[in-house]
Amino acid sequence: MHARIVTITTLTAALALCLAGCGDQANVKAKPSVHSESASPTPDVVDQLIEWRDSGGSETLDTFLEDLSAVDKASDPVDLGGLRDACADLAAHVETAELEDPIPDETANNSWKLALGHFAASATACTNGAVSDSQDDFDLMASEMDIGIRHMTAVSDRLGEIAPE
User: Fold this and answer.
1) Residue 91 phi, psi (nearest 5)
2) Pair 92, 139: CB distance under 8 Å
3) Residue 33, exposed/middle/buried by CB under 10 A (0-12, 13-18, 19+)?
4) Which pTM value belongs to this model?
5) For the chain, which terminus, N or C, has the lower number of CB atoms within 10 Å?
């Protein structure tokens, strides 16, 4: 069981990265960029992105942060029942987010779709691991979640870059 705890607690570091990069979107500030690899959005896209953010997009990002925090909390010390519940919430929120309007900025939306795919894979592995107590499932959960967090951080960074408050 100690190996599982060590593996799952690696989520803590990944969550800390995400919380620093994409916390409450109301506090996002523009970051100066020396070199941007993505195209600058048109003023229309910026307005649409602000509308998306202010009409529930920010709350959606915050919901995922809460879900990821719940998974992390149930991971150390390991609470199989808590993991099942937290992963079920994560899976449900992924399904809901997939049905919502896309993010109006192509760069942010591409990262968002990738994040959702990895969070879905993480939630499935988490649920399977919580049922079977399988180290392989927990390892997959952690790696998929880490990748999803990186993509979610890219979304947050992009929002801060083009639509700061």
Assistant:
1) -60, -45
2) no
3) exposed
4) 0.78
5) N
Preceding peptide of 43 cis, ω within 30°: no
Distance of CA 34 to the CA centre of its chain: 26
In 3D, which of 151, 150, 64 has the Cα closest to residue 108? 151
Lookup: tokens for 110: 């591409």
CA distance 91 to 110: 19
From start to end of the chain, where are the E strands?
none
DSSP 55: I
Give ∠ CA 109-113-115 in degrees, rounded to 5.
110
14 compared with 134, residue with greater pLDDT: 134
For helices 43-52 and 135-162, give the axis angle rounded to 10 degrees.
130
Question: Containing H/E element for 147?
Answer: helix 135-162
pLDDT at position 37: 52
